[in-house]
Every structure is written in C-alpha cells, then in structure tokens.
Design a protein that fits this description.
This protein is of the alpha+beta class and 144 residues long. It has a single domain, classed as 2-Layer Sandwich (Alpha-D-Glucose-1,6-Bisphosphate, Chain A, domain 4). It is 28% helix and 38% strand. It is built from two helices and eight strands. Strands 1, 2, 3, 4, 5, 6, 7 and 8 form an eight-stranded antiparallel sheet that branches. A hairpin with a 5-residue loop joins strand 6 and strand 7. The protein is globular. 17% of the residues are buried. The mean pLDDT is 88.
C-alpha cells in the first residue's frame, strides 16, 4: 500500500465541533450552504455512514465510514475503484481552540499505476483537505 498524506489544515473550532460535523455524512448537505471553490464533484447519494460522489474527469467514488474515534479519527473505505483504497481524517486540538486536520489515504497500486498517478493522488489529497478546511471554517463560524 502507498500512503498519501495531506498538509495539515487548521480549522478555527474545537475538535469536538469539527468531529460532530464530519462524523455523519448526512452533513454533506452543508456543502450546499457554503460557498466553496469550484466544485469538481457532485454528491449523488449519502447517509450517515456512506456517500457516493461523481468526480469530474474521474467517475464515481464511494466512501463508507468504517470507524469513529470520538474527537480524534474517522476511518473510511473508498469503494468503486479498480484498486483497494482506504483513508483517515485525523483531528488534533491545537492552541487557541483550533483543530488540526490531516487526511491520509492508502492505495494499493502497482508500480506502473504509481508512476502514472502519483502526482495526481498527491495533489488530490491536498485538494480534498483544502475543501474540508474551507467549508468547515466557513460553516462552523457561521453557526457558532
């Protein structure tokens, strides 16, 4: 498995508030309430534990939460891919009541696929983390 880690993002809220938003995928409706950079995906279906996304220039991707560690971690499986993949969202409270957020994914890639897609996966994981940072900061500030 190859692991990709996002840069650490800062959310201007305590980890409990951040966790309470991201632990339930029904909260994806928040994306409709917050202005985010150009959306490169569409939410097709969602419930508390799973969602199905249509990603521009890629296709459909499924996400299913497999583990929650209160205020610390969301672990998920990534489905509808031709390779095995999973990921985590790590939370850590930092100074000033802010929360550090980092996204990691693990992908089972052959050497050839890794050479072809390594750069896109590195960029994609940071884009995903940037989206979390942007929408969580805007929504949590608006609703605090």
């Amino acid at each position: 498995m190859t692991t990709y880690k996002s840069d650490i993002k800062i959310i201007s809220a305590p980890e409990e508030k951040v966790f309470n938003v991201i632990k339930d995928l029904n909260n994806l409706q928040i994306l409709n309430e917050v202005e985010v950079p150009i959306k490169k995906f569409q939410i097709l279906e969602h419930d508390q534990d799973s969602c199905l996304l249509a990603v521009d220039d890629f296709g459909e991707i499924g996400i299913r939460i497999s583990e929650r560690q209160v205020n610390k971690l969301i672990r998920f499986d990534i489905t509808q891919l031709p390779v095995d993949a999973s990921g985590e969202i790590f939370l850590k409270e930092s100074e000033g009541n802010d929360t550090q957020l980092q996204v990691t994914i693990q992908v089972e890639l052959s050497w050839t696929l890794k050479m072809m897609f390594n750069r896109q996966l590195e960029k994609g994981i940071n884009t995903f983390a940037d989206l979390f940072e942007d929408f969580l900061n805007k929504w949590l500030i608006k609703n605090s």
